[in-house]
Amino acid sequence: MSAPERSPLDRFSFNHATAKFWDQREAVEACARTGSGIGLWREPVQEMGLEASAKLVKDAGVTVTSLCRGGFFTDPTRAAIEENKKAIDEAAVLGAPTLVLVSGGIPEDGTIDTAREGVEEALAELAPYAGERGVTLAIEPLHPMFASDRCVVATIGEALDLAAPHPAEQVGVVVDTYHIWWDPQVWQGIARAAAEGRIASFQLADWITPLPAGVLTGRGQLGDGCIDLKRYQETVDATGFDGPIEVELFNDALWARPGAEVFEETRAAFRRVLA
Amino acid sequence: MSAPERSPLDRFSFNHATAKFWDQREAVEACARTGSGIGLWREPVQEMGLEASAKLVKDAGVTVTSLCRGGFFTDPTRAAIEENKKAIDEAAVLGAPTLVLVSGGIPEDGTIDTAREGVEEALAELAPYAGERGVTLAIEPLHPMFASDRCVVATIGEALDLAAPHPAEQVGVVVDTYHIWWDPQVWQGIARAAAEGRIASFQLADWITPLPAGVLTGRGQLGDGCIDLKRYQETVDATGFDGPIEVELFNDALWARPGAEVFEETRAAFRRVLA
C-alpha cells in the first residue's frame, strides 16, 4: 500500500449523467481541455455509435473511467444477462475499465431475498465473461430508499459479499458517497473494500435536505449537502487508492441548465471541497 | 425462551398516529371494544390532559403499549434532555412501558458522527432516569432516507450498539418493519436484539413503491407493499417475543379519512397479513 501519487484535484472525472442532456462530443471536448476523465453512459454512446464514441475519446485523449450502466438483473433474467454481455462488450471497445452495475429491484413475484439470489446468479455468469474482456463489474449499492424498485443491494458490505466469490479484477464495488454516507458501518466497509482490492469506482455526490419530490433526481452539488466529502476522499486515498474520482449528480435543476456551465460549476465545486 | 403464548392476532395495538386526527377518546374506545392495545402520542395526551388521558385508558381497560415520542437529542441538548425527562414522566403516568425515541438529525454545525455522539451522551443521562420510573427507552432506527433531518440512527445494529452500555430494562430498540426491511443484516439484527433482551417495541408498516412526494407520510397499509410482514412476525415471535404488535402508518391518504374507518381497515389488514 503506497501513498497516492496523484493529487485528488488531478483525478476529476465528469460523469456524463451530471449534464444528462449535454452532447457527448462537447462533454468529451470539455474533459480534454481540462485534463478530466469521463464516465460514459450507454444511451448517448449508442446514439453516436459505439465505434464513433470510442474514436472520439481516443482522439481527444480522454480517459474513460467507467461505463454506466449494467445490471437490472431482477428483470426477466435471460434478457438481462444478454443485455449485460452487450454492455461489457461496449465497455471493452470504449476502453472503460469498469461497468457500473445497478442490481435492479424486487420482481413482481419475488421478495428482496429472492431478488438478491438473482443478482448472485447473474454475477456468476457475467464475471468470467467480463474478465475475459478486461472489464471489471462494479456493484453499486444504492441508497436504501431505492431498494424496492431499483437496487436491492443497499450497503458496501452487501456489495462486497456479492463480489466475494469472484476475482477482484472481475467484480468490484462502487464507493458512491451519496448512497452510503448514512451507513454506521461505512468506514469499515471502505476499509474492507480496499483490503480486498475491490474499489472499482469512487464517486462523489452530496446529500441535500429536504429530499426533493422526485427522490431519484435530488443529488446535491458537492458542498451543498451534509456529507463530509473531503473525509471520504482522504479515507479512500489512505487505502492506497489513486484512481479517478467521478462526480455523478442526478439533479433536475442541473439537467435544466447548459452542460458547459454545469461542467465548470461541478469542476469548481470538486476543487473546492477537495482542496 | 418459550413459545409465544398469545396468537399474533390477539396482540394488535393501534398506534394513534395511524389516524392522526382522530379524537383520542374515540380511538381508545375503539381499542376497548376490540381488545386492542393503543400507542399514544404526547400531543393528543397533552391536549386532553395527562391525568385525564391516564384515567381514560385505565377506565377503558386498554393497554398502552408505547408513548411516542421522545428523542431529537441533536436539537440543543439541554432543552432536549429536559423535554425527554418530561416525556418519561408522562409515560410512567400513562402506564406506557416504553417511550419511543427518534434520535434527531444532524445539527447545523455538526456531522453525522458528532450527532451520534450526542445521542450516546443523552442516553447516558436519560437511561437511569427512565429506569427509576419503570419506563424503557426504545431507540427507533429510521429508514436511512431520514438520516440527515430526523434520525441519525439507521439500523437495528446501530441502535443495539447505542443501547449496549445500559441495562435492557432501561434501553431497548424498536423493530419497525418499514424502517429496516431493506437491511441485508436485518435478520441477524432481530436475532441479536432478542438475544440481548432489547425488543422493546414491534411495529408494522408496509413499503410502497413509488415513494410519494412527501416521503415522511408514505407508509403503506399492511399488505399493500413489498415487505414480508408475516415473516417478520414469525421471526420475532420465534425469539420468544409475545408482546404487542403495533401498527403505525404515517400516510396522508389515511389521515384524510375518518378515524373509525381507518381503524377498522387497519385491524382487518393486520388480521389478513398475519393470518
From TrEMBL, chains A, B:
Instruction: Give GO terms: molecular function aspect only.
Output: isomerase activity
- Which is an annotated Pfam family here? AP_endonuc_2
Q: Which residues form the Xylose isomerase-like TIM barrel domain?
A: 36-266
Question: Which keywords has UniProt assigned to this entry?
Answer: Isomerase
> What is the protein name for this chain?
Sugar phosphate isomerase/epimerase
Upper lineage ranks? Answer: Bacteria, Bacillati, Actinomycetota, Actinomycetes, Glycomycetales
